UniProtKB/TrEMBL annotation:
Database matches in Pfam families: zf-LSD1
Protein name: Zinc finger LSD1-type domain-containing protein
Residue span(s) of domain Zinc finger LSD1-type: 28-52, 67-91, 105-129
NCBIfam families xref list: LSD1
Record-level GO cellular component terms: nucleus
InterPro entries tied to this protein: LSD1-like (IPR040319), Multihaem_cyt_sf (IPR036280), Znf_LSD1 (IPR005735)
Organism annotation: Actinidia chinensis var. chinensis (Chinese soft-hair kiwi)
Cellular compartment(s): Nucleus
UniProt entry keywords in alphabetical sequence: Nucleus
KW Nucleus (keyword) present: yes
Signal peptide region: none
């Protein structure tokens, strides 16, 4: 005997977006598309891949980095020490601004960023290895922010 289907319950209070039209954004955990969602939402379902992405708690500061494996833009909670890419599964080191330093390549003068305290850094443009660290060169600049 078939079971009768009950009608969808009618919402007692219809959803109304915030008066200021407040929306936030985050990156889909499935397909990496940028998702917009109303302030107060706890999860967001992607219209492209149907993945459900959890919304970080209000007031959580987010940061971004580019994956070293596949060059996908990754968003993560500021303060994390590493971030795993959901596309290629590379574990990326997440450095704060005060944990990185800059030096100009000793060959092509391209500005390079590296983990502060490293002894050398290889230029991705010309593959030249510039020595840094204990014997700091005059071009080395530590980030202050």
């Amino acid at each position: 005997m078939p079971v009768p289907l009950a009608p969808y319950p009618t919402p007692t209070v219809p959803f109304t977006p915030p008066a200021n039209g407040g929306q936030n954004q985050l990156v889909c955990s499935g397909c990496r598309n940028l998702l917009l969602y109303p302030v107060g939402a706890t999860t967001v379902c992607c219209a492209v891949c149907n993945a459900v992405t959890a919304v970080p708690p209000p007031g959580t500061e987010m940061a971004q980095l580019v994956c070293g494996g596949c060059h996908t833009l990754l968003m993560y909670i500021r303060g994390a020490t590493s971030v795993q890419c959901s596309c290629c599964h590379t574990i990326n080191l997440a450095l704060e601004a005060n944990q990185v330093a800059h030096v100009n390549c000793g060959n092509c003068q391209m500005l390079l960023m590296y983990q502060y305290g490293a002894r050398s850094v290889k230029c991705a443009v010309c593959n030249f290895v510039t020595s840094v660290g204990a014997s700091t060169s005059s071009t080395e600049q530590k980030s202050s922010s």
